[in-house]
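Box 4.2: Ligand-aware structure prediction
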Amino acid sequence: MKPVIAMDGPAGSGKGTIAKKLASHFNFAYLDTGMLYRAIAHLGIEVGKIEELSAAEILKTAREIPMSVLKSDIVGLKASKIAKSPEIREVMTRLQRDFVVCPGDNHRGSVLDGRDIGTVVIPDAVCKIFVTASPEIRATRRFRSLKRNNDQITYAEVLESLIARDKQDQSREIAPLTLNDAYVVLDTSKETVRESFLRAIKIVENSLKSVEP
Ligand code: C5P
């Protein structure tokens, strides 16, 4: 299997932004697993139907939904709710494993970001990064981004929904958001995107040394 970089962490930590930049820097395929959970939650796709789909097919269907809807807090909370289901997690895990088996001939490996990538989905990922930041900083980032499409939204609402989602994701019985000694923690609270990205490059380069000549 080609090398996998697992990026886990809570909402608003910056993991998606950094994961995407890493994928392009190292020429790896990128999969935003949160987007898969958001799409199936919003579209109400049943477990039986998910079994017939690939990650690419779900993402293709998701492209028809406006980003402002998919990325909203309401859909985020809905996704977090269905993500507690063992049946859903089982099919989603299989689908994400299929993705890393075939990331495409022109890709050197894959980068997946989510909550359980390094703990459950790909436990033998060559590099595991836990991206985090304080709840207030994460809420500020999400507030700025959500405000572009919704001028009624308040910072307090965003912080409240983020804390509720963190709690739901960390306390669920199956595949909760957590980390272990295999992870390198990347706290982005006091950094610019570029600073965090440069640190992430170093972490990945270091891990790749063990698998690539
Ligand atoms: O990453 P994002 O905030 O878009 O994810 C939305 C929700 O999907 C998360 O709050 C979480 O409950 C769920 N999720 C998950 N496992 C993943 C990715 C996302 O449970 N690997």
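In the box above, the bound molecule is cytidine-5'-monophosphate. Residues 102 and 125 are 15 Å apart (CA to CA).
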